[in-house]
Design goal:
about 350 residues; alpha/beta; Rossmann fold; 2 domains; seven-stranded parallel β-sheet; two-stranded parallel sheet; 13 strands; about 15% strand; NAD-dependent epimerase/dehydratase; NAD(P)-bd_dom_sf
Length: about 350
């Protein structure tokens, strides 16, 4: 039977990498976004607002997906509003698709805030789980929009009879312009500014993150797990952590990243030095860099999400995840983390986003 994918959030880091992987494997692939991605060859763009059910009905009128991959979410001012908006987006989508009777599997991408708490309570005392993080860890007794998203998928699956999978990556490393949570590109942009201005590459985070073990998720690994789980009988109706498969300490990796750009690395020196503050006045600096090297994006805020990098690197505990659940079921994709960053940096250069 023909496999038809609907990738929701196809312009983001996760969605764009997933769309490319699906197309490479021969899937008919639709990419839904408010501003669809037109850069991926053979991706069928769908423009729709997930909060507007009439917009969805019109946009999906001729789309009959067998597999739905939800990689999109919307940030709001409070967690209560996050819950309302993000659960409504999924409910609207699955209600519109329900009438088509073609959906066999829905995969939802969330993340480690499942274990660490939402933005308002993120990795704070009282919400610090035991690490490595494992899928069977119970939900925190606190509002969390990831739980609300999951519950929408579970309810629709019970109603419509499709299978589901939940995917919980750590920090996702990959390319996307205008993405709100983009640590890899943010560090590439910061390193470029340091190189151009002669400033040192200053570690912005906590002692626990600097000294502790960590892991990250290459967007390509996440894409492979999404496809694997949605096409593997044993993986259905399960939640999975997904990371590269190695662990590292930022005290090691920070120096590797600095060496790639040929700049001086400064590590943790007793206090957190937020990147958001460090690059707060660098908009004009980036504009000059973009003009000098004829880069395609002169707006620093479209490339760097320093607030999110600070959130990740400022955590008061080391954070790494257990991958044994999917490994045991046959998911064996592995990616060396330093090479995830180098591959991204080379891609950013090729696409003329950094010099």
């Amino acid at each position: 039977m023909e496999q038809i994918a609907l990738v929701v959030g196809a312009s983001g880091i996760t969605g764009s990498n997933l769309a490319e992987s699906l197309i490479a494997k021969g899937w008919i692939t639709y990419g839904l976004a408010r501003k669809p991605n037109h850069d991926i060859k053979d991706l069928k763009p769908v423009s729709a607002d997930l909060l507007n059910i009439d917009s969805l009905k019109a946009a999906l009128a001729d789309v009959y997906p067998t597999h739905v991959y939800i990689t999109s979410w919307m940030r709001n001012d409070t967690e209560a509003e996050n819950i309302r908006v993000n659960s409504l987006m999924i409910r609207n989508l699955l209600n519109v698709l329900s009438t088509k009777h073609t959906v066999q599997h829905v995969a939802l991408v969330t993340g480690l805030k499942h274990y660490l708490g939402p933005f308002e309570a993120y990795a704070k005392e009282g919400f610090l789980p035991e690490t490595p993080l494992r899928e069977e860890h119970p939900r925190l007794n606190i509002e969390n929009f990831y739980y609300a998203q999951e519950d929408e998928v579970y309810a629709a699956a019970a109603r419509d009879g499709f299978t589901w999978s939940i995917h919980r990556p750590h920090t996702v490393i990959g390319k996307a312009v205008g993405n709100m949570m983009n640590l890899g590109t943010t560090l590439a942009v910061y390193a470029t500014i340091c190189k151009e201005t002669g400033r040192p590459f200053i570690w912005p985070g906590s002692a626990a993150q600097w000294n502790g073990l960590s892991d990250v998720t290459d967007a390509r690994v996440l894409a492979e797990q999404l496809i694997w789980a949605s096409t593997t009988e044993a993986a259905r109706n399960e939640a999975f952590n997904v990371v590269n498969g190695d662990v590292f300490r930022w005290s090691w990796l920070w120096k590797q990243l600095a060496a790639f750009f040929g700049i001086e690395a400064i590590g943790y020196e007793g206090t957190i030095r937020p990147l958001e503050k460090e690059i707060a006045n660098d908009g004009p600096v980036w504009k000059k860099i973009a003009e000098k090297y004829q880069l395609k994006e002169a707006d620093l805020s479209r490339l760097a999400s320093a607030w999110h990098t600070d959130l990740d690197l400022g955590r008061p505990i080391e954070v790494m995840t257990d991958m044994s659940k999917s490994r045991k079921l046959g998911f064996t994709v592995f990616q060396k983390t330093d090479e995830s960053f180098y591959d991204l940096f080379e891609q950013l250069r090729k696409d003329e986003l950094i010099p």
